[in-house]
Amino acid sequence: MADLMQQATALRLLPWLSPEGRPCYLSSGSEGGHLSRLADATEAQMLATGAEVLGFARKVLGDPMSPYTEVRYSGIRLAECLGDALRVAESRGLRLPVPDTDVEDAGGDEVRDE
After folding, report:
1. Distance (Å, whole) CA 71 – CA 55
2. pTM, whole model, 2 decimals?
């Protein structure tokens, strides 16, 4: 069963869509391949753009005199960037190693709500 899970997670969700609008996946044994590096760079650019758009949007939304068109445009761009960030998070989450549930935590660290 663990082998099946590793095979399922061996596909990398890429940060772009096919021309038909479907998700693209990369099946690669190496992390350093050309497409992997391109996907890494694209993800980094998506997140950087999101941070930049967030900065501009905060200025627009912080000004009560901002025109409706600027507020609307900011909302549209924020929605696009949020979609990109969620796609990056999904892709990275799918690549996390599957935890071994048979081995108990030997660290003894305990998380408590206080």
Report:
1. 13
2. 0.73
Which single residue is written with the structure tokens 């989450």? 93
Domain ranges of the chain: 33-96
What the block records as the tokens of 91 is 């892709």
Report angle CA 97, 102, 105 to the nearest 5 degrees: 80
Bridge partners, residue 26, by sequence:
12
37-90 per-position pLDDT tens digit: 999 999 999 999 999 999 999 999 999 999 999 999 999 999 999 999 999 999
Q: Could you count the other beta carbons within 10 Å of the beta carbon of residue 105?
A: 7
Q: Where are the alpha helices (DSSP H) in 1-114?
A: 2-9, 34-62, 68-94
Q: Locate 42 and state its tokens.
A: 């694209």
Please name which of 36, 29, 30 lies closest in space to residue 14, comparing C-alpha atoms: 36
Q: Report residue 5 as tokens.
A: 């899970």
